[in-house]
UniProtKB/TrEMBL annotation:
Cofactors that this protein relies on: Mg(2+)
Keyword Magnesium annotated: yes
Assigned keywords, A-Z: Glycosyltransferase, Magnesium, Pyrimidine biosynthesis, Transferase
PANTHER family reported for this sequence: OROTATE PHOSPHORIBOSYLTRANSFERASE, URIDINE 5'-MONOPHOSPHATE SYNTHASE
Binding site residues for 5-phospho-alpha-D-ribose 1-diphosphate: R100, K104, H106, E126, D127, L128, I129, S130, T131, G132, N133, S134
Stated name of the protein: Orotate phosphoribosyltransferase
Binding sites annotated in the UniProt record for orotate: S130
GO BP of this protein: 'de novo' UMP biosynthetic process; pyrimidine nucleobase biosynthetic process
KW Transferase (keyword) present: yes
Family affiliation: Belongs to the purine/pyrimidine phosphoribosyltransferase family. PyrE subfamily.
HAMAP family per UniProt: PyrE (MF_01208)
Gene3D superfamilies tied to this protein: 3.40.50.2020
Enzyme Commission (EC) number: 2.4.2.10
Amino acid sequence: MIFNKDTAEKTAEFLLQINAIKLNPRNPFTWASGWKSPIYCDNRLILSFPAVRNYVRDEFSKNIEKQFGKPDVIAGVATGAIGIGMLVAESMGLPFVYVRPEPKKHGRQNQVEGFLQKGQNVVVVEDLISTGNSSLLAVEVLREAGANVKGMAAIFTYGFDVAEQNFKSANLDLFTLSNYQNLLNLAVAKRYITEDEEQTLREWNVSPSTWTIEV
């Protein structure tokens, strides 16, 4: 769920302004999974815009403490959430670690990079939630390392049913700065897309794995 409506609307507006979210219902993108999608989200662009990254940092810092209490450690999911996660940790005066998708192939073969003690309370910062699988893998790694994962905070979620089910199965609360619903509402209001394109985007969101564009 979103932290609050005002933040969700403002975050969506920023993401559209800096082209972090691209909407192209007529010429869909192809994701790494092979899914065809009329939307592509690249939140790494946030780091290149000081006003936007500072807003995201401050909203995360404020709402993480409000929702989860102040944790002992902030963890970022590699690689997309390392930058913003570090900014949040700095703002909150907390240690920072990040979680690799798999253990390092050499050296100490770490999967969690940074100093983490068993029993510490951790909030995970993520940039984007699609199915939630890669994000929850990071949570599993942290739990295996002995961390008490209080929850996850992400910039944006597509709001897929499968993600909701995955987080429920993992017994983990997810809060986001913005989501798909707020994005579409704003995109229509600001005329980034037409009402017909909005309908296409809503149809895709219901069944993204099987969606195809009508020719």
